[in-house]
Design a protein that fits this description.
The complex is a heterodimer. By secondary structure, chain A is an all-beta fold. Chain A contains no helices and ten strands. In chain A, strands 2, 4, 5, 6, 8, 9 and 10 form a seven-stranded mixed beta sheet that branches. A three-stranded antiparallel beta sheet of chain A has the order 1-3-7, with no helix packed on it. By secondary structure, chain B is mainly beta. In chain B, the strands form two sheets. In chain B, strands 2, 4, 5, 6, 9, 10 and 11 form a seven-stranded mixed beta sheet that branches. In chain B, strand 9 and strand 10 form a beta hairpin. The N and C termini of chain B lie far apart (40 Å). The relative contact order of chain B is 0.31. The chains are: A mainly beta, B mainly beta. The interface between A and B is medium-sized, with 28 and 22 residues.
Amino acid sequence: EIVLTQSPGTLSLSPGERATLSCRASQSVSSNYLAWYQQKPGQAPRLLIYGASSRATGIPDRFSGSGSGTDFTLTISRLEPEDFAVYYCQQYGGSPLYTFGQGTNLEIK
Amino acid sequence: EVQLVESGGGLVQPGGSLRLSCAASGFPFSSYTMNWVRQAPGKGLEWISYISTSSSTMYYADSVKGRFTISRDNAMNSLYLQMNSLRAEDTAVYYCARGVRSLGYGFDNWGQGTLLTVSS
């Protein structure tokens, strides 16, 4: 079973700062199949990044993804007020077919 | 515009059954794989089931295997989740989500969710 572990659990930053979120897999994950999502309270998740580093349609370029193998990173270069939310990484193709990380809560400091 | 609209949630007693539906519009439903994802109150996301475009392949999370059944009706542009032997730990918001091959099978569109509460 592929387990995705996200760190930190909570990240407290101020608008304008840089955010770095980590996702570590228990087994190697194909970069093609690593995604990141943003979820705000009361809303469905929104796809931000697919294929580890490609931005989904309409996602601002302050969001970027990187990594390979077992270590992946989501970076938000300059935080905007609307970026404070919970972020999840997701893998496809392992066992189980899909796995989500437990989430990182990005909160305003 | 792509739309996914879940329905069928509600209050069910432990051991009971319920069927969730997801009505799709705005895209060629039969061309996309579909999934169910749930989120328990205050918790993270849990993928629970996948169905291929032609219904030839289904996958389930261990937590629901043998109790839940995913299905689809491409003529009706609808996705379903039949849930049996429900437990308190099945209480969650249930989302349907579209998987896109060109996006590494990421979920580019989600419904608004439907709440299932399992309680006596």
